[in-house]
Amino acid sequence: MSNESNTQEQGETRRKERRGFASMSPEKQREIASKGGRAAHMKGTAHEWSSEEARAAGRKGGRASRGGRGRLPEGGTAE
User: Fold this and answer.
1) 10, 42, 52, 63: least surrounded by Cβ within 10 Å?
2) pLDDT tens for residues 13-30?
3) Secondary structure letter of residue 4 according to DSSP
4) CA-to-CA distance for 53 and 34, rounded, in angstroms?
5) 42: exposed, middle or buried (C-beta count within 10 Å: 0-12, 13-18, 19+)?
6) CA-to-CA distance for 77 and 12, rounded, in angstroms?
7) DSSP readout, 9-57?
8) Which residues contact 32 (CB under 8 A, 6 or more apart)?
9) Model pTM score
10) If we measure between CA atoms, which residue out of 6, 28, 31, 33 comes closest to residue 18?
């Protein structure tokens, strides 16, 4: 069997239809996620960040936001 039957014709763009969570409005997504968070806290299984965990996550995010270029220069300011 050829691959031609499995591929789309050139020039034809086909957009996938959004399903599930992606098809909902941002407000509806937030409402559902919030219910899950509240339920986890009530159950006692929710993660609560310690100060050190939060600092480590912030450092990691800061490095990633600069495209992995590492730390700022020694002076602590960007050039």
Assistant:
1) 10
2) 777 888 998 899 999 999
3) G
4) 22
5) exposed
6) 49
7) PTT---PPPP-GGGGS-HHHHHHHHHHHHHHHHHHT------HHHHHHH
8) 21, 24
9) 0.43
10) 28
Cβ-Cβ contacts under 8 Å for 23 (sequence gap 6 or more) = 17
**Structure-block tokens of residue 70:** 């590492």
Task: Check residue 69 and give its pLDDT.
Answer: 58
**In this structure, which amino acid lies at residue 12?**
E
The pair of three-digit structure tokens given for residue 5, joined into one six-digit string: 């039957």
* Alpha carbon distance 79, 73 (integer Å): 8
| Structure token pair of residue 47 | 């993660």
What letter would DSSP give residue 7? Answer: S
